[in-house]
Amino acid sequence: MLRIGLTGGIGSGKTTISNLFHSVHNIPVIDADEISRELLLPSGKAYHEVINLFGSSCVLESKQIDRKFLREKIFINEDLRILLEQIIHPKVQAEITSQIESINSRYCIIVIPLLIESNMQSIVDRILVVETNKQNQLNRVATRDRCDKDHVEDIIKSQIDSNERLKHADDIITNNGEPEDLILQIRQLHQKYLALAI
Ligand code: ATP
Questions:
Q1: CATH number, domain containing residue 113
Q2: Is 88 within 8 Å of 32 (Cβ atoms)?
Q3: What residue ranges of the chain have pLDDT lower than 50?
Q4: Ligand 1: which residues within 6 Å by Cβ?
Q5: Mean pLDDT of the chain
Q6: Contact status, residue 96 vs residue 137, Cβ threshold 8 Å
Q7: CA dist., res. 155 & res. 139, Å (int)
Q8: Whose CA is closest to atom 11 on ligand 1?
């Protein structure tokens, strides 16, 4: 099975696009963010290690790990970010590999927001980058998350530069127009991936 890694900056449209691959073309989607969230649940494989790293103040009354607390800590502390990634990334990678084994399809889409940053290129066969201009990123994320644009700008700055990301792309989707414009680009890629998967 051909493994397509879908990546892009914050708010570039990864979820929108992977939903379309699934709903229009019935293509299975694996979502690294969803896996990370599950790892942090009390029943998850990273729960205790993460609490050991951040201390009990990262645990909410509900026993859930406070992901906002983690995000804020790693945003200002590079060492903590690296240590957290050393816990999370190998487990995400193992879970992706295990999910791939259970899928029966010509190809699948694996959404990995930090595919390049976390050096996970080797678990995919092709890299599909979704590219959106910064203005759209700022507007769309600020609207979606009801946050201010400065905050979004800070996150964009913490991610790999978009030109750098594009250097790793085998395929590119441009998401600067209407959501409907994505349908045609996705249909063309779907045909390409089916042909490559033979
Ligand atoms: P994140 O990196 O935060 O996980 P993402 O890359 O998955 O984000 P989406 O959630 O798909 O991005 O899109 C960000 C927001 O922009 C969403 O609210 C989505 O509905 C909206 N959006 C995506 N594409 C378009 C478009 N072409 N026109 C208008 N809004 C869009």
A1: 3.40.50.300
A2: no
A3: none
A4: 8, 10-16, 113, 140, 144, 175, 177-179
A5: 96
A6: no
A7: 14
A8: 13
- Give the range of the structural domain holding residue 78, as residue numbers without chain letter: 33-102
**Cα 65 to averaged position of ligand 1 atoms, centre (Å):** 26
Query: Both tokens of residue 82?
Result: 């690296």
List of residues 6+ apart from 74 with CB closer than 8 A = 80, 81, 84
Residues 47 and 126 in one domain: no
Span 78-130, pLDDT tens digits: 999 999 999 999 999 999 999 999 999 999 999 999 999 989 999 999 999 99
- Best residue among 16, 109, 132 to mutate for probing ligand 1's pocket (most ligand atoms within 8 Å of CB) is 16
Q: How far apart are CA 113 and CA 159, in angstroms?
A: 10
Nearest atom, ligand 1, residue 16 CA: 11
Number of structural domains the chain divides into: 2
Pocket perturbation via mutation, ligand 1, pick of 10, 12, 15, 146 by most ligand atoms within 8 A of CB: 15
pTM: 0.95
Q: Which helix (H) or strand (E) holds 109?
A: strand 107-111
| CA 198 / ligand 1 centre spacing (Å) | 32
Two tokens, residue 133? 């201009």
